[in-house]
Amino acid sequence: SHSSPFLHPGAVAKTDRLSIVHLKRDLQAPTILKDHDEDDEGYSEGKVVNTRFGSFPHITLIGLPWGAQVRASKVDTGSRGRRGQKQEKKQPQEKKRKRDDADSAEHPNKRRDSENGDVAISTPAEGKEEKEAETAASGFIHLLPPTPENWTSSLPHRTQVVYTPDYSYILHRIRARPGSSIIEAGAGSGSFTHASARAVFHGYPREADVNGTSQEEKLGKVWSFEFHELRHQKLGEEIKEHGLDGVVQITHRDVCEDGFLVEEQSPKADAIFLDLPAPWLALPHLTRSSPPIPSHGTSEAGTPAANGTTEAPTTPFLSALNPTKPVHLCTFSPCIEQVQRTISAMRKLGWVDIEMVELSQKRFEVRRERIGIDNGAQRGLQTTPASVDEALARLIEVEGTFKTFHETGEKVEGKKDKVNPNNREKILESLVERKVYKEGNLVHRCEPEIKTHTSYLVFAVLPQEWSAEDEEKARAKWVVKI
Ligand code: SAM
């Protein structure tokens, strides 16, 4: 069937379908929700997502609307503890980003202010309920429908993957659209596979077949190739579990050796994406007419074999490309030397509009410098009573300036008041408990360039072939139309 939570998530989380347990930014646990424990390990609450923010029995998640915030289970987890903490097979992958720690899950009473990215903290009264939940377990999650984007950031990595900024641009440039036929090699961990499946999906079969094209062509398809046996098998399982087997066909194949026909059928590709170490070796299989494939895979694409001859084809040539359209191609290579060899092969094989692009995505980290007691203590400086007083004085100064500004609209220089000994204790206490802190200047910094390099994208187009006969036919149609 063509039912997939990626394509039609519906309004609520359902049994046996993939959902994304979102713990915090860059930390998500993809989970297929089960209403019973198949492994039958005797847990009364059935299958459970165990995270460091608490335990979430599947049965408490099934039926919840997407986007729901769910508190950790208050169920006694003693039995699980004794049994050695039964864990979900797929552990969430944590990316080590310091700024994650400013996100929600660890601190149930923190929320992110979407306007300015600042973290706001609820008042003790508002936070009471959360505090209780925190004591019983440790936090909450959000339940999200799967999308190619959150799958990319949570999938089990078997290889390097193509990330969202790259694949969004690639899919746009190769003109992937509902109904397209895309060739993808190698499939790797299936990040690009999921994004391209969504891009080409054309809805479920419809009764009216207005253009006379077959339903299969209209549905759009990803022809995916992977030569690593285990990766091929794992991705096949995932595609099936995710209900994408009607849209994605995965083949176990070395495409540089054996090309792109599947069971002697042509994918009739409109678009191609090659994420391979040597894309120039695959290009001779992506031609419109019989390719000049060298008899030994070692020589350059398009170069006759050492003895000056090419092997005679044993079967009549069938192109993997759509004969009725220009075909759009993208290759993805981390090194410039790979790009050079790829472009050289492209030129020999008639590809045009060759262009290389590098996408450089930078994360800007914007935050307010904390002032007050953290200025010293958090950076490991020794805090003496004098330095604490100094910090508190600055705090009061800023507070006073803010107050005047908000009350009168005037910016006034604050005075360095002496800290009232009674207040000192109170302020110190709240700072230690981190209920209150004052914020300083807004500062930003960005990731260094070297960290943002993923790959070079080479785009090219192979024009449609146009024979004298085609011209005749086109003219005939044209004349009749007038
Ligand atoms: N695009 C994938 C993703 O987004 O998850 C990642 C692809 S990974 C970087 C490259 C994959 O190409 C590897 O899994 C490798 O096994 C496969 N591969 C390399 N050479 C191949 C070939 N000649 N035929 C088929 N697959 C190949």
How would you describe what is shown here?
- By secondary structure, the protein is of the alpha/beta class.
- The protein is 28% helix and 19% strand.
- It is built from 15 helices and 17 strands.
- The protein has helices at residues 78-82, 128-136, 148-152, 164-173, 191-200, 215-219, 229-241, 255-258, 279-282, 336-348, 374-377, 385-408, 421-432, 449-452, 468-481; strands at 18-24, 27-32, 48-51, 54-57, 69-71, 110-112, 119-121, 140-144, 181-185, 221-226, 248-252, 271-274, 327-333, 352-358, 364-370, 439-446, 456-462.
- Strands 11-10-9-12-13-17-14 form a seven-stranded mixed sheet, sandwiched between helices.
- A hairpin with a 6-residue loop joins β6 (110-112) and β7 (119-121).
- The radius of gyration is 30 Å and the shape is globular.
- It binds S-adenosylmethionine.
- S-adenosylmethionine (SAM) is lined by residues 159-162, 185-192, 225-228, 231, 253-256, 275-277.
Labels describing this entry:
globular, Rossmann fold, seven-stranded mixed β-sheet, 482 residues, binds S-adenosylmethionine, alpha/beta, four-stranded antiparallel β-sheet
Q: Structural class of the secondary elements?
A: alpha/beta
Order of the strands making up the biggest sheet: 11-10-9-12-13-17-14
Into how many domains do the coordinates divide? 3
- Bound small-molecule species: S-adenosylmethionine
Secondary-structure blueprint:
Elements: E1 18-24, E2 27-32, E3 48-51, E4 54-57, E5 69-71, H1 78-82, E6 110-112, E7 119-121, H2 128-136, E8 140-144, H3 148-152, H4 164-173, E9 181-185, H5 191-200, H6 215-219, E10 221-226, H7 229-241, E11 248-252, H8 255-258, E12 271-274, H9 279-282, E13 327-333, H10 336-348, E14 352-358, E15 364-370, H11 374-377, H12 385-408, H13 421-432, E16 439-446, H14 449-452, E17 456-462, H15 468-481
Parallel strand pairs: 9-10, 9-12, 10-11, 12-13
Antiparallel strand pairs: 1-2, 1-8, 3-4, 5-8, 6-7, 13-17, 14-17, 15-16
Helix pairs in contact: 4-5
The structure holds S-adenosylmethionine (SAM).
S-adenosylmethionine binds at residues 159-162, 185-192, 225-228, 231, 253-256, 275-277.
